[in-house]
Amino acid sequence: MSLAIAENLPPDAREAFDKRWQRVADCIAGRAPDRMPVSLIGGFWFAKYGGVTCRQLMYDFETSNQIGERAIVEFEPDIGGGANFTASWGPLWDKVDFRQLEWAGHGVSEDSPYQYIDKEYMPAEEYDEFIFDPTGYLLEKYLPRVAGAFSGFNELAGLAGNFYLGVPASTFMFQQPNVIASFERLKECGQEAAKIFASNFAFGQRMASLGFPPIAGGGTQAPYDVLADFMRGAKNMMKDLYRRPEKVLAALEKVTALTLKRVLATTPRGGSPIVVIPIHWAADNFMSAKQFEKFFWPSLRQLMMGLVEHGFVPMPLWEADCTKRLETIADMPPNSCIYWFENTDMVKAYEVLGNNFALYGGLGASLMATGSTGDIDAAVRHLAENVFHKGGRLILSTATPMPEETPIENVRAMFGAARKYGA
After folding, report:
1. pLDDT higher than threshold 80 for residue 269
2. Residue 75 in contact with residue 212, Cβ under 8 Å?
3. I need a labelling partner for 209 at 20 to 30 A (CA). Which of 134, 326, 338, 354 fits?
């Protein structure tokens, strides 16, 4: 499983790149790598590592990339590294007038990571509108609610249903002042997005030239989480499972198709086949096993299978404790995905899933943030002896992106122990 990003590298960088990526590829394919691979997902921890605020990390791309490179060169992860991606999207969120987050200097302090604002973005009475015409609904109602730059798009919902002479007649709406203002504003947003994506791409190329593969080529969300987090809100979605279950299932069918279409269209080929999928509402204490098997897993599995069929490797991050889900999520083709666990016991996960799937993570947020270097050394040794050396295809990492409070010496202890016990 070679990566196109490495094709034109100098021989020495290509050798180092291929050796690191091969460890990960072996885990995905169910083979034993030469040693346990180790990954770094820094997130806002890079602000601590670089001695800057979270706001500086979000708004100064050059500084963000310099910090990321310094960390990668020091820790030498097999995959992963820089602070970029959404950790550097501050200027874009400003221009879009994004309303679903608070971020450094914009609702929270300048030294805080971003926070999601949970609320009802789609009232229950609008289920039918979304199910009937998702695109028209997004244009008329959803996008203007969540981002000010789309405020004029509510006048474009009439595009749906135009045929024959209605097609040229529909151009009338594009001369309306609110529509023109939104398109002009979105042009500026697009230019800002292009800067961010160019910076991210250049960083990835730079790291590849030093022999370091990226962790992922893209990311998306589980369909249930899209509906629960970004549309209905947590409390309302929990009620919907009882009050309107058929509408939930119908909406999930639409969300699944739209999510797969978007991720296939926007995930570049050649950087990495891995697609990260943060999982928010699948935890054991959020819904019953029956509800998980009815509402959550079928749509997520369909999304994952769609990615697999197009050559991608889904990597769901199972947040919180998902021990009770292990038997169910084993229903994927062997060697098709990477399962990243937060609080699920990794030894138990290996016992249930075997070496059919690569495992990722292992070191909890509390351990990294408050444990001693000796605690971390012992935890890595436990994982190496009870998972990796028993046949588990473990890619060692933190259970979430590195907690921003983590002492730097703890990260050094993690990488030192990985090399000591993972050989």
Report:
1. no
2. no
3. 338
